[in-house]
Amino acid sequence: METAAFEAAVADHVEDPYDALTDTIALYAAVASLSERQRDAILLHYGMGFTAAEAAEVMGNEEATVRSQLRTGRERLAVTLKLRCPEHPDGKNHS
């Protein structure tokens, strides 16, 4: 369930290359706006396929800290990209 916001964004397949480029730039900008630790956790986990435990080892953090950074990073990305937030039962972004 933790990738629902990202899967929802991908589900709306875009045929227009300009729209795809615009969406890609928006995603990169949103990821770049995260704190360094959140960005590292997001990129290690989603970009490189590391588990939270593996990312924690690379980052020198506890696994629980990385899980928290992933959750907070996902929530911030959902707000920035105006996506439904899967962490909340009503799907709304509470920021």
TrEMBL record:
The UniProt record lists the RNA polymerase sigma factor 70 region 4 type domain at 26-77
Query: Which superkingdom does the taxonomy of this entry point to?
Result: Bacteria
A GO biological-process term: DNA-templated transcription initiation
Q: Which UniProt keywords apply?
A: Sigma factor, Transcription, Transcription regulation
Under the heading SUPFAM superfamilies, the entry gives: Sigma3 and sigma4 domains of RNA polymerase sigma factors (SSF88659)
The molecular function terms in GO held by this entry are:
DNA binding; sigma factor activity
Please name the InterPro entries in this protein's record: RNA_pol_sigma70_r4_t2, RNA_pol_sigma_r3/r4-like, WH-like_DNA-bd_sf
Per its UniProt record, what Gene3D superfamilies does this chain match? Answer: Winged helix-like DNA-binding domain superfamily/Winged helix DNA-binding domain
**Full protein name:** RNA polymerase sigma factor (Sigma-70 family)
